[in-house]
Design a protein that fits this description.
mainly alpha
Length: about 300
């Protein structure tokens, strides 16, 4: 009896070319925009550096923590990129970096965020589903823009994309929740499918990482959404309706392969200060959703 011979079917040429071009776009943006905005370009005499980037807030918070200054000082503009809104543990991780040259730290961090962006987009770019491929293409510029500003979002998205439905998922969700709060909504799916241990792990990790914030002076902590709000800009009622729609989708599809994508939709709808970078949570779709086969026509003989 002959054994069954199997071979891996390669994606069509046009899909491979489009995927490779997308990856090349990410790499090209990483190199070009880093030279333009981080300060290396200025050192090489190319262009002036961008004076305001998100990683400046992380570096500044770590420096204040090292010097014993208030971690959350009074600010004139709560929507400025230099405002630090994260848990103290993230600033603590940056403290050793404050002993290194500031511009060098910025270059390495921005390049690392581009690597995280590529890692986050790769599962969708490698899929054979046109919808997921287009989704990755839609958010490639957003991920690149977040990376060039040194925002931690690409690291969060990459972590969620690759672990949200694995054993490490609850821990990564807890860490993401401690940084930006709203990713903790992903843990709601655990509760809806009665995976209570994972739910409590995610909530416990967030609580453990956020709790030290009460050791600091929070009188100047920025709590207003700022002028660049999403549905909140229309009215709090519009935002509340959006939140309800998000959770309704999550409840409806919690046990569906699209459950993690529904959770991502709920996260996006719940953010009052919705910026382009926050839309990238929609890249978190889950392995089952990516691997789900599209209906195909039966072969003709």
């Amino acid at each position: 009896m002959r054994g069954i011979v199997t071979r891996k079917i390669r994606p069509p040429l046009h899909e491979r070319v489009a995927r490779d071009l997308s990856v090349a776009l990410i790499v090209g943006l990483a190199i070009g925009l880093t030279l333009t905005f981080v300060g290396l370009g200025e050192a090489l005499g190319v262009v002036a550096s961008n004076p305001e980037q998100d990683w400046h807030a992380y570096f500044g918070a770590a420096k204040r923590l090292r010097e014993g200054a208030p971690l959350y000082p009074a600010v004139l503009d709560p929507s400025a990129e230099s405002v630090y809104r994260y848990s103290p543990w993230f600033a603590l991780l940056w403290v050793p970096l404050t002993y290194l040259p500031r511009d060098a730290v910025g270059v390495v961090w921005v390049l690392a965020m581009f690597a995280c962006s590529a890692a986050a987009l790769r599962p969708l770019l490698a899929s054979r589903r046109l919808g997921l491929f287009l989704l990755a293409g839609l958010f490639t510029p957003y991920m690149a823009s977040a990376s060039i500003h040194g925002n931690v979002q690409p690291l969060i998205i990459a972590g969620l994309v690759h672990t949200v439905d694995d054993r490490a998922g609850p821990v990564v969700i807890g860490i993401a929740g401690s940084l930006k709060g709203f990713p903790l909504i992903y843990a709601v799916r655990y509760a809806l499918v009665r995976e209570w241990s994972k739910f409590f792990i995610a909530a416990g990790v967030t609580l453990a990482l956020v709790a030290p914030i009460f050791l600091f002076d929070l009188s100047n902590y920025p709590v207003t959404p700022g002028p660049l709000a999403g549905l909140w800009a229309l009215s709090p009622i519009a935002w509340a309706v959006g939140v309800l729609l998000g959770f309704a989708a999550l409840i409806r599809y919690a046990r569906h392969p699209a459950g993690w994508f529904a959770a991502s939709f709920a996260v996006v709808m719940a953010i009052p200060r919705l910026l382009y970078v926050d839309m990238t949570f929609l890249l978190v779709t889950g392995r089952d959703f990516i691997d789900q086969e599209e209906p195909r026509q039966p072969p003709r003989y």
